[in-house]
Amino acid sequence: MARPVSPTLTRSEQEILEVLWDKGEASVRDVADALAKQRPVAYTTVLTMFGILAKKGFVVHRLEGRAFIYRAKITREQARKQALDHLLQQFFEGSPNLLAQHLLGEEGVSRNELRALRDKVNKAKLAKAGRGK
């Protein structure tokens, strides 16, 4: 029985998208060659992964000669947001507050990082107050 398709990016899918985000667009061969610099990867595996990415709506392609040229349909930021939304729903009851509390409680956070977080919170409060007027 085939494994169900993950609604979020798998590690392999993300690696392919990283290549596309860096290059703008690329053929299966271009991506396979780029990934092969990190670890062995088969052309057919990359081709299969592109099919999955297209089905999920993460890439689009065009025909150039006999080759399909792919480009990412989502940005890095959109992928991060989607992954974070999935994480929030699956493990933190959809609550950014629970996630933040977990991160602050579990991870070592330096004074500089806390200061930066405080600044972001204050800026978000000001922006929200400005929209409410």
Which SSEs are present, and which pair or pack?
Elements: H1 11-23, E1 26-27, H2 28-36, H3 43-56, E2 59-64, E3 67-72, H4 76-91, H5 96-106, H6 111-132
Antiparallel strand pairs: 1-3, 2-3
Helix pairs in contact: 2-3
Provide structural commentary.
With 133 residues, the protein is mostly helical. The protein is 64% helix and 11% strand. It is built from six helices and three strands. It has helices at residues 11-23, 28-36, 43-56, 76-91, 96-106, 111-132; strands spanning 26-27, 59-64, 67-72. Strands 1-3-2 form a three-stranded antiparallel beta sheet. Strand 2 (59-64) and strand 3 (67-72) form a beta hairpin. The longest helix is centred in the C-terminal third of the chain and has 22 residues, at 111-132. The chain is elongated. 13% of the residues are buried. The mean pLDDT is 90.
Number of helices: 6
N-end to C-end Cα span = 56 Å
Q: What does the average pLDDT come to?
A: 90
What is the H/E string? HEHHEEHHH
Unreliable stretches (pLDDT < 50, length at least 5) are none
Rg estimate, integer Å: 19 Å
What's the shape? elongated
Number of strands: 3
Oligomer: single chain
Helicity, as a percent range = 55-70%
Task: Kindly report the spatial arrangement of strands forming the biggest sheet.
Answer: 1-3-2
Which structural class is indicated by helix and strand composition?
A: mainly alpha
As a percent range, the share of strand residues is 5-15%
**Tell me about the biggest sheet?**
3 strands, antiparallel
